[in-house]
Amino acid sequence: MMTINGCVVVAIRDDLDDQEIVALQDQLVDEVARQSAHGVVIDISGLEIVDTFAGRMLAAMAQMAQVMNARTIVVGMRPAVAMTLVELGMTLEGVETALNADRAINAITGDRQKIS
Amino acid sequence: MPNKNTMAAILSTDFDRVLSGWLKAQTKEGVKRADLVSAEESKEQSRDLLSAIADALPDAAVDSELDLTETVWDPIRDVLETITENRTQRGVSTTEMGWFIGSLKQPLFEILHTELADKPTEFMREMWNSTRLIDQISLHAIESLVEKREATIERQRAEMTEVSAPVVKIWDRIVTVPLIGTLDSFRAQTVMENILDAIVQWEAEVAIIDITGVSTVDTLVAQHLLKTAAAVRLMGAECVICGISPKIAQTVVNLGVELPNITTRVDLESGLAYAFDRVGVTVARG
């Protein structure tokens, strides 16, 4: 987990078990609060297998960051993962997505500059 | 002599009689298909098959041990392969193929009857043995015919899948896939896979699905489109569906299908204009 331009970037890997994902969730909200970050980028390019639990956690993380006023973007989803989530009926409505972290950070910082 | 190999003996001594009888029976039973297979070819095929049977018979078990997969029957299977190959291409039906071989019984039984007229028990046994053999051969032929057809269908399906969903990059960060024909579950899956891979490959921001060539849009197709759009969105790109003709618009609404959160455009042109707008490209006449 690292912070770039006021964006917390967190990468989720495949080998995380359910407990570790929950721990990561704690860590993420703490980090957002500490840095008073205005953006969160969740990189799931390392994620090759998803189940409903992982999908729900992803949506939950995005929502949590959202209520802490940080714009959350999920990036780097693999085609197979996207198809699985759609088949599972988890279209992650309300979660913003981008192709890669670079574009997500650009979108977040670009937005900030427009405001200020 | 007339125990297990009466048939073999008949075929070696009366080969020509059996062959001509068989050809006559083929004509009589209407399975000659002179319109598809010429008389010469028919004769040649029949002779090949019959001589293969005659060659194999003396060494093969024809009683309850009969097993067409044994090596001694190899030549017969090869000949059958050639015949079915030839007849599949001509469009001969499975019934005709089966009965083409089945009609061999008629001359064979006739000869058996004359040879074994005074030995009813043996006649019965020989008849049963030859029936079993000929039926097995005919079933094998039918199976091989069906296999050939299935192979053709499979090949065509693979070809169709290949050409059915070509995803092309039409501009920096814009990919498009023109869909033609009917969209079944299998194709929809291929389209989805191709489009998602293309998004990764070309780092696309907008994926345009052009359904101008899709003949019918029903609830199932709409469902597939919705899924694809959702998957595209998860990948961080946007999905634009174009080619919604007035007729399709009417059907979709009348069916009560909703396409929420999906950008739709009437044709590829306006879809492209929307995509340009999204990625920040301005087109000017120079």
Largest interface chains and counts:
A-B, 22 and 19 residues
Percent strand of chain A: 15-25%
Write the H/E string of chain A, N to C.
Answer: EEHEHEHEH
Tally of DSSP helical segments of chain B = 11
Beta-strand percentage range of chain B: 5-15%
The CATH homologous superfamily of chain A:
STAS domain
Tally of DSSP β-strands of chain B: 5
Average pLDDT rating of chain B: 84
**Radius of gyration of chain A, Cα only, in angstroms?**
13 Å
Order of helices and strands of chain B: HHHHHHHEEHEHEHEH
Shape of chain B: rod-shaped
What structural class is derived from the secondary structure elements of chain B?
alpha/beta
Side by side, the strands of the main sheet of chain A go: 1-2-3-4-5
Named CATH architecture of chain A: 2-Layer Sandwich
Keywords (chain B): Phosphoprotein
Organism (chain B): Flavimaribacter sediminis
InterPro entries (chain B): Bact_StressResp_Reg (IPR051932), RsbRD_N_dom (IPR025751), STAS_dom (IPR002645), STAS_dom_sf (IPR036513)
Protein name (chain B): STAS domain-containing protein
Defining key terms:
heterodimer, A: 116 residues, alpha/beta, Transcription Regulator spoIIAA, five-stranded mixed sheet, 4 helices, 5 strands, globular, B: 286 residues, Globin-like, 2 domains, 11 helices, 10% strand
